[in-house]
Amino acid sequence: LDGGQIAFLAAEGIARRPLPKSFKQVVNTGGMLLLLTLLVVITIKDIWAVGGALTGVR
Question: Does residue 58 lie within any of the structural domains?
Fold first, then answer.
């Protein structure tokens, strides 16, 4: 989420005023949820792939 911080700084520089703290919190929380969801989905796919390889099922 460091890229998000750079985007926040750029937006604040363009607007010449700080972004609301609540907006930053919502965006950071959404980004973290997206990353965690991606982690879970990829982990489940990997487990299914290993299980299929062990049982011979594709």
Answer: yes
- pLDDT averages per 10-residue partition of the chain, 58 residues: 86 96 95 96 91 70
Read off the tokens for 57: 């099922």
End-to-end CA distance of the chain: 36
CA dihedral for 24, 26, 31, 32, sign (positive or negative): positive
For the whole model, what pTM was predicted?
Answer: 0.72
Please tell me the total count of domains within the chain.
1
Q: How many residues are given for the chain?
A: 58
Q: Determine the 3-state secondary structure of 11 from DSSP.
A: helix
